[in-house]
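Practice problem 4.
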């Protein structure tokens, strides 16, 4: 327990210092507080423990607003009396005041319980309210309350016990319950008056059950358990509640259209300049006269995860399938977009999808990368309907294999040519095995082969072989990637070891020579792979240099640092010698080996004359570089693995349209769903220790922009205008009936996924 005395050396601690001290203690894990206050206000809220544990406060001499904005899992005990605004905006805390409370106790309370062991002042319980998604608030007072009590009350339950109030003409003060529209007030004792729209009624069985269930807790909390017998004679109690909608006498409204026709000016007031259709527009209208119109725009926008994913994977749809219990469908869905959900998405990708995840603004991003690993060994059947068209793909890396996968699933005959002995491109040849488990890679490569993609390895494609492939294929894809090390014409560049060749040699099992003191030029992920691999090959000291802050992922930088490696930047290389490396500002780093890893360029000497930008191909809008030759991936521009996969998928669509004789029309990327369309307040925050495994992340996914079939719109529409239509394929849609809809926008307001939109009615009225 943390004890805080707010008077030290005759000096009073300020409220701000006290609240900051409490907040810091909670963040560090403290849960119990004993506070000797000296009138400081706002003690006890709003606070929450990082692991969701209950916070307990024992307070003496508290000031105003004790328990203000108090949250669930907070308990406050106030010894003696306190001043105004006890439990103001209480949202779930348990607040006990053993003595009197000041004015506006429980003001705007919307949750939790407030126990007062004495009297409460003016406007006690005013503006109490109840959100039906949460438990209703409760306010218990042992004695009486001041005037204007429960003013504009909208929900919850209040209990005024009337103990020691024989000399009061009203235990509720003057003018109680003015403007009250919801909730109930239980009273024991005299009431002088109440408004005409309030009913004073005897208790029914449900009321008695509520009071019985709560009275012991209340009296024990304020240490007055001896009063239980006195307060349990339910004949002495009554309740006040507002009239229901049905009980309020409706006013007779005139038929305005009839009035205008019969008693006003014949033909209408302005007949000489405009026709009068005698349509009377009420305040609330339906059909064409609505001010606003709702639209169920399911999947009109991309979720942030899909928007930020270069591959275009709709993770929100995967999680929706898991939500419906369609586990196999969910695991297979990702294979429509990539053949490497585990090797790339689940292992090597930086997961930009997670960086944009809406859930990260609530607690933590959905575990999208880990979800990809679940699809590692899912099998898909070969295509049944074959087209007879042949596609030759030059390059067996992620781009070439992605296109091969997509085209084979579309029914084409696909052959992949690669000059390495093993298919897989950089996944197999360059990425260290310590970063990519080989059993995962082999499972995904085998899956590609099982659907009928043919692999031709050890095939060096030169101009003659390229011509042969073109002659035997209906379409050809160039996807050889980047395998030529890039570097500048530094003095001593001939002494460099090329990082890509170094990594390839390691993966071939050749154990290439490595120096004791190694410098790696380049701080990207490839540079970190080279540096850590150098350590694994026996280097004693490795330093990575770069002209700017390294662009590698944090986890790769930490991996190098765990080996003992260092990073130096900015370092502009000027010269390499047998002793080490020099910068342009005179710095020198001793090294017996310098390895360069600042990127790679494609080797395209087998192609005829085609349009290029420096070393890279420049395809036309149809993704072609020659009449029936297409290009994808790093031969167009260097990028991440996920960029190459996304580009290859689009290129495969273009090739398929070309083979079918269709006009090439590639899909256009949708806009991201606007943040303001999403209702994140419906999703509770999870503490790190409570986060589910990837297969149960559908419990947290907001399903941004895609209907999750939660039926909130269906249940919330006040006019019952929304209906759900189920389709034979298991899908569904929601529609709004124009004849019932009043354009109130509640459907759009409650939709957590941003699927319902509400817009101004653009229909032009014809007369």
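Answer key:
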């Amino acid at each position: 327990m943390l004890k805080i005395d707010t008077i030290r050396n005759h000096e009073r601690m300020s409220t701000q210092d006290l609240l900051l001290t409490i907040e810091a203690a909670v963040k560090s894990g403290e849960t119990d507080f004993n506070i000797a206050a000296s009138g400081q206000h706002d003690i006890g809220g709003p606070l929450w423990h990082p692991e969701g544990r209950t916070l307990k406060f024992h307070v003496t001499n508290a000031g105003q607003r004790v328990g203000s904005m108090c949250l669930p899992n907070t308990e406050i005990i106030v010894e003696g009396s306190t001043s105004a605004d006890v439990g103001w905006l209480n949202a779930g805390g348990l607040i006990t005041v053993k003595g009197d409370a000041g004015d506006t106790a429980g003001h705007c309370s919307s949750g939790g319980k407030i126990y007062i062991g004495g009297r409460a002042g003016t406007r006690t319980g005013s503006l109490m309210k109840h959100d039906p998604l949460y438990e209703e608030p409760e306010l218990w007072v042992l004695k009486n309350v001041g005037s204007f009590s429960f003013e504009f009350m909208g929900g919850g339950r209040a209990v005024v016990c009337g103990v020691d109030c024989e000399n009061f003409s009203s235990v509720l003060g003057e003018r109680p319950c003015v403007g009250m529209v919801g909730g109930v007030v239980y009273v024991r004792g005299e009431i002088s008056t109440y408004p005409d729209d309030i009913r004073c009624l005897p208790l029914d069985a449900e009321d008695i059950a509520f009071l019985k269930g709560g009275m012991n807790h209340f009296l024990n909390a304020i240490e007055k358990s001896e009063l239980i017998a006195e307060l349990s004679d339910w004949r002495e109690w009554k309740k006040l509640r507002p009239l229901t909608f049905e009980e309020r006498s409706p006013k007779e409204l005139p038929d305005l259209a009839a009035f205008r026709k019969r008693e006003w000016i014949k033909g209408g007031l302005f007949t000489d300049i405009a026709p009068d259709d005698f349509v009377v527009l009420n305040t609330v209208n339906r059909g064409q006269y609505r001010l606003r119109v709702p639209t169920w725009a399911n999947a009109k926008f991309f979720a942030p995860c899909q928007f930020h994913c270069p591959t275009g994977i709709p993770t929100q749809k995967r999680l929706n399938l898991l939500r419906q219990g369609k586990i196999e469908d969910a695991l297979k869905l990702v294979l429509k977009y990539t053949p490497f959900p585990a090797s790339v998405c689940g292992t090597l990708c930086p997961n930009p999808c997670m960086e944009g995840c809406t859930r990260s603004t609530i607690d933590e991003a959905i575990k999208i990368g880990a979800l990809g690993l679940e699809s590692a060994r899912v099998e898909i059947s070969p295509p049944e309907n074959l087209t007879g068209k042949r596609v030759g793909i030059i390059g067996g890396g992620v781009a070439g294999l992605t296109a091969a996968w997509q085209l084979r699933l579309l029914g084409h005959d696909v052959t992949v040519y690669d000059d390495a002995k093993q298919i897989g491109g950089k996944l197999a040849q360059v990425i260290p095995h310590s970063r990519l488990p080989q059993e995962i890679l082999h499972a995904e490569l085998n899956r590609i082969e099982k659907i009928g993609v043919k692999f031709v390895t050890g095939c060096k494609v030169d101009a003659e072989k390229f011509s042969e492939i073109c002659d035997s294929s209906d379409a050809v894809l160039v996807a050889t990637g980047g395998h030529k090390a890039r570097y500048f014409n530094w003095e001593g560049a001939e002494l460099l070891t090329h990082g890509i060749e170094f990594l390839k040699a390691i993966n071939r099992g050749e154990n290439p020579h490595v120096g004791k003191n190694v410098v790696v030029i380049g701080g990207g992920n490839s540079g970190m792979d080279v540096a850590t691999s150098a350590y694994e090959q026996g280097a004693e000291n490795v330093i990575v240099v770069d002209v700017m802050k390294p662009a590698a992922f944090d986890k790769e930088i930490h991996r190098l640092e765990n080996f003992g490696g260092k990073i130096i930047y900015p370092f502009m290389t000027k010269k390499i010698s047998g002793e080490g490396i020099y910068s342009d500002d005179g710095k020198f780093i001793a090294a017996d080996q310098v390895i360069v890893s600042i990127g790679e360029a494609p080797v395209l000497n087998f192609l005829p004359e085609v349009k290029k930008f420096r070393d890279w191909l420049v395809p036309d809008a149809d993704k072609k570089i020659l009449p029936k030759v297409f290009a994808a991936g790093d031969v167009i521009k260097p990028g991440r693995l996920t960029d190459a996969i996304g580009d290859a998928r689009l290129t495969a669509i273009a090739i398929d349209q070309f083979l079918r004789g269709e006009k090439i029309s590639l899909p256009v990327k949708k806009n991201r769903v606007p943040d303001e369309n999403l209702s994140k307040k419906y999703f509770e925050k999870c503490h790190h220790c409570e986060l589910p495994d990837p297969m149960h992340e559908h419990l947290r996914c907001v399903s941004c922009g895609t209907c999750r079939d939660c039926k909130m719109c269906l249940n919330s529409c006040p006019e019952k205008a929304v209906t759900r239509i189920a389709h034979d394929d298991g899908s569904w849609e929601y529609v709004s009936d124009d004849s019932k809809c009043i354009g109130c926008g509640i459907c759009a307001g409650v939709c957590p996924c941003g699927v319902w939109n509400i817009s101004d009615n653009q229909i032009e009225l014809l007369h």
